[in-house]
Write a structure and sequence with these properties.
- The chain has four helices and four strands.
- With 154 residues, the chain is an alpha+beta fold.
- It has one domain: Sufe protein. Chain: A (Alpha-Beta Complex), CATH 3.90.1010.
- Mean pLDDT is 89; it is low at 143-148.
Length: 154
């Protein structure tokens, strides 16, 4: 295994074991549930929006190491970003995990650890579940914590 692959694996394992922003978010004003029925991954993303800015974000759920690490890294990456910045980051991340753009990993920071996921199509859904769930929570201005939409990655 190359040093770079070992580093990537280390980052994913670290975020799986000690996920950042894990747990319920007190005062969330947006939430969405995401499920991947094919593998059993489930994630709930809760945000607090101040105007157009994601002032805080947390997630809960269960899933494989890739799913949990992706949710953890996603929350760190989008906290403090505007809706438009978060959606642009989603597009770049999605292109990365699908292997659509060889330059997609530029400016993604630690999210680049998911660059090899494109070689394993079944894992693309694991890596992108939290991101699709975030996108759902951002999409509807009427979404409040007690009326969460559900996202499925079937």
């Amino acid at each position: 295994m190359s040093d770079l692959q070992e580093l990537y694996q280390s980052v994913i394992l670290d975020h799986n074991r000690k996920p950042r922003n894990f747990g319920a978010l007190e005062g969330a004003n947006r939430t969405a549930d995401g499920k991947n029925p094919l593998c059993g991954d489930h994630v709930q993303v809760e945000l607090h929006m101040d105007g157009d800015t994601i002032s805080d974000i947390h997630f809960t759920g269960q899933g494989c190491a890739i799913s949990k690490a992706s949710a953890s890294l996603m929350t760190a990456a989008v906290k403090g970003k505007s809706r438009a910045e978060a959606e642009a980051l989603f597009q770049r991340f999605h292109a990365l995990v699908l292997g659509q753009d060889p330059n997609a990993g530029k400016d993604l920071g630690q999210l680049v650890v998911f660059s090899s996921v494109s070689r394993f199509p079944v894992r693309v859904k694991c890596a992108s579940l939290a991101w699709h769930t975030l996108k759902s929570a951002l999409a509807d201005d009427s979404v409040m914590a007690d009326t969460a939409p559900t996202v499925s990655t079937e």
